[in-house]
């Protein structure tokens, strides 16, 4: 994977990474309002899984703990790791929790109102959607206001058709 840039994260270093795939589709403008709701509805309709990241170096607010409780019925798995879609940590670890998308989970995720609202310490970080547990179709790096779609994992035309207002740009070799 090629590095896109280094950032300081809770006293440590994180690197945002390009996908091992040659092409990504970048989300040009943060999905908020109807575009964000459309993404959530699309994830529900396609029976996607989703993940949220709990970086160990952060002490999370009560709101984050409440979100975890609300999502508990849709919990699938968790793993301690130093990487997830778009990010590689150096010297730190995080817990990536995977959930099933359900109507209850959609309602909980919708309360945030925007894709880049998933940022610590108020909330877990970096909402991502998957086709199966190890195949992401959307990744985000909330604190960098960056999000991308993996076109090899999902039909990009279907995403565009079903998520009005989503602004995308194809980036070769990202």
Describe it for me?
The protein has helices spanning 33-45, 62-71, 103-110, 156-162; strands spanning 3-9, 12-17, 23-27, 49-55, 75-81, 83-84, 87-90, 94-100, 125-130, 136-141, 146-149, 168-172. The protein has 174 residues and is of the alpha+beta class. The chain has one domain (3-172). The protein has an eight-stranded antiparallel beta sheet with strand order 5-8-4-9-10-11-3-12, with no helix packed on it. Helix 1 (33-45) runs antiparallel to helix 3 (103-110). The longest helix has 13 residues, at 33-45. It is globular and about 40 Å long. The N and C termini lie close together (10 Å). The model is unreliable at 1-22 (pLDDT under 50).
Brief descriptors of the model:
174 residues; alpha+beta; 8-stranded antiparallel β-sheet; 4-stranded antiparallel β-sheet; 4 helices; 12 strands; 22% helix; globular; disordered N terminus
Q: What's this, in brief?
A:
By secondary structure, the chain is of the alpha+beta class.
Secondary structure: number of strands? 12
Strand content: 35-45%
Q: So how many helices?
A: 4
Radius of gyration: 15 Å
Structural category: alpha+beta
How much helix, percentage-wise, in residues? 10-25%
The geometry reads as globular
What low-confidence regions span 5 or more consecutive residues with pLDDT below 50? 1-22
With strands numbered from the N-terminus, the spatial order across the biggest sheet is 5-8-4-9-10-11-3-12
SSE order: EEEHEHEEEEHEEEHE
Average pLDDT level: 88
Determine the N-to-C terminus distance: 10 Å
Q: Structurally, how many domains make up the residues?
A: 1
Largest sheet: 8 strands, antiparallel
């Amino acid at each position: 994977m090629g590095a896109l840039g280094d950032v300081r994260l809770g006293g440590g270093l994180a690197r945002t990474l390009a996908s091992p795939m040659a092409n990504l589709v970048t989300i040009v403008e943060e999905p908020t309002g109807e575009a964000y709701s459309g993404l959530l509805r699309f994830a529900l309709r396609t029976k996607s899984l989703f993940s949220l990241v709990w970086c160990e170096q952060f002490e999370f607010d009560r709101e984050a703990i409440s979100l975890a409780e609300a999502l508990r019925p849709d919990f699938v798995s968790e793993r301690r790791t130093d990487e997830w879609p778009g990010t590689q940590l150096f010297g730190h670890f995080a817990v990536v929790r995977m959930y099933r998308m359900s109507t209850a989970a959609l309602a909980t995720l919708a309360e945030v109102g925007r894709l880049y609202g998933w940022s610590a310490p108020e909330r877990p970080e970096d909402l991502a959607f998957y086709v199966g547990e190890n195949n992401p179709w959307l990744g985000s790096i909330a604190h960098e206001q960056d999000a991308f779609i993996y076109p090899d994992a999902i039909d990009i035309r279907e995403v565009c058709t079903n998520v009005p207002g989503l602004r995308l740009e194809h980036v070769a070799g990202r």
